[in-house]
Amino acid sequence: PPKVAINEALEVAKKFSTRESSRFINGVLDRVRKELRAAE
After folding, report:
1. Which of 9, 11, 22, 36 is the most buried (most CB within 10 A)?
2. Domain residues of the chain, as ranges?
3. Mean pLDDT of each 10-residue bin along the chain, 40 residues long
């Protein structure tokens, strides 16, 4: 499921990057998820 994939990506970002980066990545991936969902 998309939410699980986003969560996994955020866990990796938190481990290898800064807190601000994980927030940014969350925003980007959530936007992509919404765009893909709208296209269905």
Report:
1. 22
2. 2-39
3. 90 90 92 92
For tokens 């980066």, name the residue.
21
With the CA atoms of 33, 21, 5 and 16 taken in that order, what torsion angle do they form, in degrees rounded to the nearest 10? Answer: 160
DSSP 1-37: -HHHHHHHHHHHHHHHS-HHHHHHHHHHHHHHHHHHH
pTM for this prediction: 0.73
Measure the CA–CA gap between 37 and 17, rounded to whole angstroms.
28
The C-alpha atoms of residue 11 and residue 40 are separated, in whole angstroms, by 27
